[in-house]
TrEMBL record:
Sequence similarity: Belongs to the DNA repair enzymes AP/ExoA family.
Protein name in UniProt: Exodeoxyribonuclease III
Encoding gene (name): xth
First-tier enzyme category under EC: hydrolase
Cross-referenced Pfam families: Exo_endo_phos (PF03372)
């Protein structure tokens, strides 16, 4: 079995002090994709910079203290890539990709946006470019006999079941009709499968992000915005997908929870 986890750490240095390092030491994951690292490589705790048993690819943002993604793998990658060929976004710390035998895995941190601001138009530009990349990536991988898994914080709740207070958020970034339609295109046109939703087809959530404000976590008033998007054959090999929701508010090391999927890659042979 191959286990892949994605987690927005909301600042790796802060998360490391709250329990992330203990989580990493205990995880059964073979690959861990991180987002919102918000640190240069030299600023990482030594336990992460030279993480024992892990091969690491760090992609910090050119703007210090912003964004940043990483991919940690127990197997040495055959190829690594930072960015997806975008003049505007390749230095923004939002995409990193590795090749393992028969499998390409990427960590994505899609911009969050804010309605009626430049942040939203930036998000829209990113989405337009990234959909092209997703389509080309899957097509190229299929020609090479490879499967694809794009993990991360997509900053969009796709359906009403993906956020608790959907009625109040219909005009908010992250649940705009055009954003949700774009995510539908990722599934229908680019040919990806949301493996968590496939394994939880008839329930609200499972949510992966809860605001630190109020009692959002205690009331499970969250959003499902962290996805593992798989090519079709890889999705068919997924035997389990779930959110690692902490047992209590005090045990959280981020406002996101890790999202994990288990794949039986022997089915692909």
């Amino acid at each position: 079995m191959t286990v892949v986890t994605t987690a927005n750490v909301n600042g790796i240095r802060a998360a490391a002090k709250k329990g992330f390092l203990e989580w990493l030491a205990a995880t059964s994951a073979d690959v861990v994709c991180l987002q919102e690292v918000r640190a240069e490589v030299a600023q990482l705790p030594p336990e992460l910079r030279d993480a024992d048993g892990w091969h690491t690819l760090w992609a910090p943002a050119a703007a210090k203290g912003r964004a940043g993604v990483a991919v940690l793998s127990r197997t040495a990658p055959q190829r690594t890539q930072i960015g997806f060929g975008s003049t505007e976004f390749d230095g923004s710390g939002r995409y990193a990709e590795i090749d393992l035998p028969g499998l390409t895995i990427a960590s994505l941190y899609l911009p969050s946006g804010e309605v009626d601001t430049e942040r939203q138009t930036e998000k829209e530009r990113f989405m337009a470019e990234f959909l092209v990349h997703l389509t080309e990536l899957r097509t190229r991988a299929a020609a090479e006999g490879r499967e694809v898994l794009v993990c991360g914080d997509w900053n969009i709740a796709h359906q009403q079941a993906d956020l608790k207070n959907w009625k109040a958020n219909q005009k908010a970034s992250g649940f705009l009709p055009e954003e949700r339609a774009w995510l539908t295109r990722v599934l229908d046109e680019a040919g990806y499968v949301d493996v968590v939703r496939r394994h939880h087809p008839d329930q609200d959530g499972p949510y992966s992000w809860w605001s630190y404000r109020g009692r959002a976590f205690d009331n499970d008033s969250g959003w499902r915005i962290d996805y593992l998007m798989a090519s079709q054959k890889l999705a068919d090999s997924c035997v389990k997908a779930h959110v690692e929701r902490p047992a209590s508010h005090a045990e959280r090391w981020s406002d996101h929870a890790p999202v994990t999927a288990v794949f039986d890659l022997d089915q692909l042979l």
